[in-house]
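The instructor's notes for this session suggest beginning with a concrete chain rather than abstract definitions. Hand out the sequence below and ask the class to guess, before any prediction is shown, which regions might be ordered.
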Amino acid sequence: MPRSIFPMAIADLSAFAKSIRTEIDKLDHKPSHLEMLNLLARAAGYRNYQHFRAAGKTEEVLATWSVAAAPEPMPDEKRVLHTLRVFDREGKLVRWPTKRSQQELCLWFLWSKIPRGRSFSEREISEFLNGLHHFGDAALLRRDMVDLALMQRKRDGSDYRRIEKKPPPELKLLLSRIGGAVAKAA
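After discussion, reveal the predicted structure:
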């Protein structure tokens, strides 16, 4: 049977030696090979030699695994297609959808149009949002964007800012479909 080599790193050699000496002094006989392995493992902070070997194998296995990040979730095309119905050929909201999932996707669309790091007054953000929809209710859009934590505002309404966060996968698909429709209309 081949001999396995298990490397051991010792942080404090002095404490390690004292621990071994103390353990050997407790014995009334000369330690066997297995007892010596257990003494060394306990001095290094393991329960016994088996624990030391298992920890080494675990580290080795974890090092060989190549765990990739979870893949990006696929966008819900059906949700995007239903949401596209509330946009006109210029990429503006014609009406406010009734389903909350579609409303949220529309809010993400509006969020994507707000410039990063820019501060707006209430009047400025309302004018900006009015340029992106036809139904004339910027207050509804502002409130919903703040409620969904896509935008932050001061209590007095003097400062509105976009909050940076990771959008849902459907937003990219929605933007590409709206962009394609706008290009065809032009």
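Then share the key points. The first strand starts at residue 151 and ends at 153. Helices lie at 13-26, 33-43, 49-64, 77-84, 100-113, 122-130, 138-147, 169-185.
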